[in-house]
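Troubleshooting: if your tokenizer reports a length mismatch, compare your output against this known-good record of 137 residues.
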Amino acid sequence: MAGGEPRGPVSSSDGSYIFPRHPAEIDRLDLQHFAMREVLGGNYLAPISAPARILDVGSGTGRWAAEISMDFPEALVVALDLQSSQPIPLPNYRFLRGNVLDGLPFVGNSFNFVHQRLLGPGLPSSVGRPWCRRRFG
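Known-good structure output:
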């Protein structure tokens, strides 16, 4: 969510995230979200009715997770990323700092709906390609 204090570069222990975190990058990520929402005609394509737990992997600015939190106020929405953009004051929204490349800190089947999009461009090919091969063959 754009605004607030400028953020410095985000890095992980293995240098797996390549984009800087500053106001222009936050704006770019939000514009990317708005464009995807427009193209898809909403925030998701899968048929979901009343999810209890929603996970947003690589949440970026948190915009998608915040909007889903408002769409499903009875669901717990967890946003996972290297750094939180800004606090999002919604009662059913939680931010969790973490690196997806280190694995997810949840037991299997903890969420009814998992969202992840456009994560690949933020990963250097030396990390992203092997990670994708291990998970998707």
